[in-house]
Model the fold of this input.
Amino acid sequence: MSTEDPKNTLDFEVENMNFHRLLVAVDEDDSTSSIRAFNYAVTLAKTYRVPLAIVTILETGDLNIYDSLSPDVLSDHRQEVLDKINQYAAKAKDFGVTDVTPLIGEGKPGNIIVNKIIPDWRPDLLIVGSETTDKNRLFIGSQASYMAQNAACSVIVVRANDM
Done:
């Protein structure tokens, strides 16, 4: 190894870099960026033959106070989210990903994914979509910057459309 300042030299060997556990975050409303992030994630998981977890967050803040206090309404909404994430898992398996884990959280998407889902599932790569418009809603795509800055793993942000 050279004794030069490492900031001013490219004196290193290029090494393979692979990820071993992937996590993809998808919106329950199937935003374009979520679908693109999902497509990228399943492609990586299949190509590298690694486990893939698919997470969506039940955004309880989207429910009005009466619905959030109604056990039946909340239970129905949870079931809808569970059905949706299971559909994503089935699509991943149909595509050829052999190890798929569906996950659901509740609350603010970025916070739950960074502070609960990632520590529990321990991925080394998070893949998340990001919409370039409609940032007023609190959906997963609007939380991409927060997750990229705060996640304990590498993060790839997939845009809704190519420029």
